[in-house]
Design brief:
single chain, 158 residues, alpha+beta, 2 domains, 4-stranded antiparallel sheet, two-stranded antiparallel ribbon, 6 helices, 6 strands, 38% helix
Length: 158
């Protein structure tokens, strides 16, 4: 993660912080759109490591909205799957046609909220399945990680 942090700093980002070993990076950059940032980061990682690593940029406001819109407020550890874009209705229908025992999910905007009473590690409704059915990129985080990432963005407040 130290190497990844250095790559972000080389791109000119400020207040670069990493969280756990899953590629979570929080940084400050006021001159580029999320799409431009994704392209810059993608290109930098590809040129440095020699392979492609998709990334997804979320603003603090998007994370706050995801947390406040959580349809499972009384569940101990829901999961948040952040989508790269709004999925097409036909792909939403394909995802909604799937059902697994003891796995619950709800799509609100560009976030899928999931609840796995038997544990996320065994869940069949996982990030790979969501990406395949919706035909878009996605990344999943648990409640604690999502809250921590938002907390890490507080440097952007004036």
């Amino acid at each position: 993660m130290t190497d990844l942090k250095s790559l972000y700093q080389e791109l000119g980002f400020a207040n670069v912080q990493t969280y756990i070993q899953s590629g979570n990076v929080v940084f400050e950059c006021k001159e580029a759109s999320p799409i431009q940032l994704q392209e810059m980061i993608f290109d930098k990682i590809e040129s440095h490591y020699g392979f492609e690593v998709p990334n997804l940029i979320l603003t603090p406001a998007e994370i706050e909205t995801a947390l406040s819109d959580n349809p499972y407020p009384n569940i101990e550890n829901p999961y948040f799957t952040f989508l790269s874009e709004n999925p097409k209705q036909e792909n939403i229908n394909a995802l909604n046609s799937i059902s697994f025992d003891n796995e619950f999910f709800e799509l609100i905007g560009k976030v899928i909220y999931s609840h796995y009473p038997n544990g996320a590690g065994r869940a069949k409704m996982n990030n790979n399945l969501i990406e395949r059915k919706l035909k878009i990129r996605a990344t999943s985080r648990n409640l604690n990680t999502t809250k921590k990432l938002l907390e890490m963005t507080k440097f952007t407040e004036d």
